[in-house]
Request: fold
Amino acid sequence: MAHYALIDNNNVVLQVVVWDGDDQEVVVSASIGVIAKRTSYNTRGGVHSNGGTPFRKNYAGIGYSYNSTLDAFIPPKPYASWSLNEDTCLWEPPVAMPTTGFYHWNEDTESWEEDT
Reply:
């Protein structure tokens, strides 16, 4: 069984389905009538958590976009100030989050604020 992202004409993921068989993008696309791209449940930031082959940088989700140049699924941008890391295809804040405590991002000040 493999996971496939179903993509619209704007390269936005509409749905993720499980399909019996590997490397069946053409078969899935033809059977369902939309573009299908394989995705791996265990892939995040270009790394497969079980040491397997990572597919397209990130596991696809509804609302993610597919970038054919990077051959990657990219999550929706969380904040206007964040930038895309093209190696991981994940969004990064302009300031690294502190490593201790609990914080949330404040877009107005473009900084991390400690949760109280």
User: Anything to note?
Assistant: The chain has two domains: 1-76, 77-116. The mean pLDDT is 91.
